[in-house]
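Hey, I'm writing a tutorial for new members on how sequence and structure tokens pair up, and I'd like a real worked example in the thread rather than a made-up one. If someone can provide the structure for the chain below, I'll link this post from the tutorial.
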Amino acid sequence: MKRIMGLDYGSVTVGVAVSDELLITAQGIEVIRRKQENKQRQTLARIEELIVEYDVDRIVLGYPKHMNNTIGERAVKSEELADKLRQRTGLEVILWDERLTTVAANQILSQTKMNYEEKAKVVDKLAAVIILQGYMDKLRFERKEEIEQ
């Protein structure tokens, strides 16, 4: 079975997570860093490498809407990345509402004994896990409802 990739797209980092083969759990695999926001060629190339390595057939990309459900600059940049990923990989890219995922990731990390620098290195990866896990939980819920009908 193919896996799903989750991405938390930031201005200079991309947190990456992948599902297990049964689409039950999400695992963080890395944070891709770039020197400038508009320099995406290496980031896209690394995502493509990970797609092949993990046998991914779908991407879930965090979509940072405002709390009032409007779309701002970060959401527009996510839409642009989604288009680039679709063109380069031919895969389905789902924009997934990621409101408060980074807040949730920071809350989880605040319960650890990690210092600020250590937390900063993993928060994007954890946010990608939360995005992907939310999507997979929705899929599982929808499948359960279909079975019960």
